[in-house]
Amino acid sequence: MSDDQPQALRAEALEALLIEQGLLSAEAVDEVIATYNERVGPMNGARVVARAWVDPAFKARLLADGTAAIAEFAFEGGQTEKLVVVENTDTLHNVVVCTLCSCYPWAVLGLPPKWYKDPAYRSRVVREPRRVLAEFGVHLAEQTRVRVWDSSAEVRYMVLPQRPADSEGLDEAALAARVSRDAMIGVAVL
Amino acid sequence: MSDDQPQALRAEALEALLIEQGLLSAEAVDEVIATYNERVGPMNGARVVARAWVDPAFKARLLADGTAAIAEFAFEGGQTEKLVVVENTDTLHNVVVCTLCSCYPWAVLGLPPKWYKDPAYRSRVVREPRRVLAEFGVHLAEQTRVRVWDSSAEVRYMVLPQRPADSEGLDEAALAARVSRDAMIGVAVL
Amino acid sequence: MDGIHDLGGKHGFGAVIRETDEPVFHARWEARVFAVMRAASAAGVIRNADQFRHAIERIDPLAYLGHGYYGRWLGGIETLLREAGVVDVADLEAAIAARGGDPRAPAAARPDRQPAHIDYQPAAPGSRREGQASARFAPGARFAPGARVRTRATGTAGHTRLPAYARARCGTVIAVHGAWVFPDSNAHGAGENPQHLYTVEFSGRELWGDEAEPGTCVTLDLFEQYLQEVTP
Amino acid sequence: MDGIHDLGGKHGFGAVIRETDEPVFHARWEARVFAVMRAASAAGVIRNADQFRHAIERIDPLAYLGHGYYGRWLGGIETLLREAGVVDVADLEAAIAARGGDPRAPAAARPDRQPAHIDYQPAAPGSRREGQASARFAPGARFAPGARVRTRATGTAGHTRLPAYARARCGTVIAVHGAWVFPDSNAHGAGENPQHLYTVEFSGRELWGDEAEPGTCVTLDLFEQYLQEVTP
């Protein structure tokens, strides 16, 4: 993958052929770039997490039915027909993967990072999650159980991280700014 | 693999370093080339097959203990510590593979052809042997059973093909000339 | 399909490499591929996500490992566009050459001569996913939370969402998700075959034996047809 | 090791490509690799075939699929030569550059920082294979021809000769070969652990389910430790 020039030219050629046939507009690329840079991304999931931290009723709804609970945010982005939110606790750590392709809850987390889609993460995290998490800097206590969610169908998973101990008194927006993408995948703690 | 120049240079560099250290002689490459072009190859297996066709007592010994039976030929070549010879009949067709690497009975067949070592043959012949054999031009009757020998340990397998119907009266040397490498792997019939 | 894509539990891929300040798209061509995917969907060439995933599974295995995520998409989309006759490979190669590229550079696409899904019609417009499938699916779920189930032992040449690492394994149902379209048939235009979907939890030990990390488990979302009851 | 090398039953590799009038070596560098392998064996760097096979399994997966048979050997040998300290990577890269090559071209070798086998000593000179192992192995074979056996369900991070496609499968013993060195331990310098070897026949249906071709079976040569008795 050191040289992606052949793929770049092939994509450009394919795009040109579809534009010629009237199947694609020349502006579509810029629209894609704008959508996933500006509107669809982990800032959406962060808002959901922050609200769950401050609003116990919302948190209960979110854990009971993630799809219904996030409907009020009206996110765009797709790939999130059914959302299940799983909560980290003192005794259980959750982490999400898709070993067969790269399923990911776009509406709340945007497009996945490269490592999430690469063979190393997909192959290893189901077999040796503690070792992989340690490489990410997450060192779990032996007695903390680890549950790896392999997204093999259309259900999409998001982790509800534990609220940082030093976040007392922050409002919802300030809390959202503390929530990282990696924490919502389960490869970071806050 | 369109361009194997990096591998070629790396091999040359490695060879040079070992020669410098006195671990390898500059003539070793030519000796390897001579050995496997001139002395170790399927002409050896062909002699074994031809003898089995003309000498029923040898054939019985060969099928009972291949290693002992070929000892009288004193082949060189290695990779054949224990040889098992399996006989094709009207109702059973045998074919040999090594799915995990490329094990092959060097002493009787020489070094394996490229296709034997490539992913396509190794992956497919255990799962769809009839289809693969058909691609090789071997169309088996439905009632002929197929047994695929996957060489997963140090036992090496060679197929004893059926003697061609039109070979009456040929002597052992003429018969040997009729035996192909592919027939001894089991991907051809004679 | 027992393909290169089925990576769960495989060894040899090294460390997880993270980028700092990773952009959403690393180059404009990645976004182009995304736009082409959308156009192919709108044109009806990509009929459903299952067919698209299977097209990606069918690309050249070397490209699968070497061309990255959008390179894999590119291979899958080109496969489907050529199978549908929307793009002709000669035109594509001419367009590559016109841009100064090598039209014979190894491509990821692997179109079938007779694609299995060419006659595919959705069973009903918009009926692809949960809501609609549930409505048309009368029978109740076969398994309830807490049920012990065993997965199918063998693979298939077609599309499936039961990874190899979880075959012939026993687990416990921890959630029931209603009826969903069955990818194994839907990917091939062989019907939506809606059926109940279960989240099944497998212990690390069940999946990986003695080498499993202690106190770990994996969940998978598995379709009813993959599962058998375990008799206690 | 659940590595890229475990190809049996995998889909997606296309047609078997045969060459007409194929030479024994396609280029001189292939014979060079062969000669280097012999030298590495003579120098004690390659201690046994199991260790060498495992070194090949450990190379870069892309190189495994893309560099051909002797490219795989090259990767395995370079791995072991570097792990043994016989070859330094800086010297190797300098030698490549001196020949006009790019020393940073993707290499197949994947040396471990702390190779598992560095302290390996053969249990006895020349005791690697059948004859000697049998002689030192007292107990009788656990299974006789005709016995029904089931293979181990799980894989391992180390070397093994039980392919993934034949795990958790029932078959019939058709031959007993005496005691042989156990590759799973011998590859790692963890002892020769000699044990009985059996040829086990599996029906196509047992391995591949309903999609199996009728009237086909596969045999594997399997070590006693992989096998369990099937109680009828």
Descriptive report:
The complex is a heterotetramer, with 2 copies of chain A (190 residues) and 2 copies of chain C (232 residues). Chain A is of the alpha/beta class and 190 residues long. Chain A is built from 11 helices and 4 strands; from the N terminus they run αααααββααααββαα. Chain A has helices spanning 5-20, 28-39, 42-54, 56-64, 66-71, 106-109, 114-117, 119-124, 129-135, 172-178, 181-185; strands spanning 82-87, 92-97, 145-150, 155-160. A 5-stranded antiparallel β-sheet of chain C has the order 4-3-2-1-5. Chain C starts with 27 loop residues before the first helix and ends with a strand. The chains are: A alpha/beta (190), C alpha+beta (232).
Mean pLDDT across all residues of chain A, rounded? 95
Please work out how many helical segments of chain C DSSP would assign: 8
Strands of the biggest beta sheet of chain A: in what spatial order? 1-4
Q: How many strand units of chain C?
A: 5
**Strands of the largest sheet of chain C, in order across it?**
4-3-2-1-5
Taking pLDDT < 50 over at least 5 consecutive residues as the criterion, the unreliable ranges of chain A are: none
* Percentage of residues in strands of chain C: 15-25%
On the 0-100 scale, what is the average pLDDT of chain C? 90
Helix content of chain A: 40-55%
Terminal Cα span of chain C? 31 Å
Strand content of chain A: 5-15%
User: What characteristic shape of chain C results from the CA principal axes?
Assistant: globular
As a whole number of angstroms, the C-alpha radius of gyration of chain A is: 18 Å
Kindly report how far apart the N and C termini of chain A lie.
33 Å
Describe this structure in a few short sentences.
The complex is a heterotetramer, with 2 copies of chain A (190 residues) and 2 copies of chain C (232 residues). Chain A has helices at residues 5-20, 28-39, 42-54, 56-64, 66-71, 106-109, 114-117, 119-124, 129-135, 172-178, 181-185; strands at residues 82-87, 92-97, 145-150, 155-160.
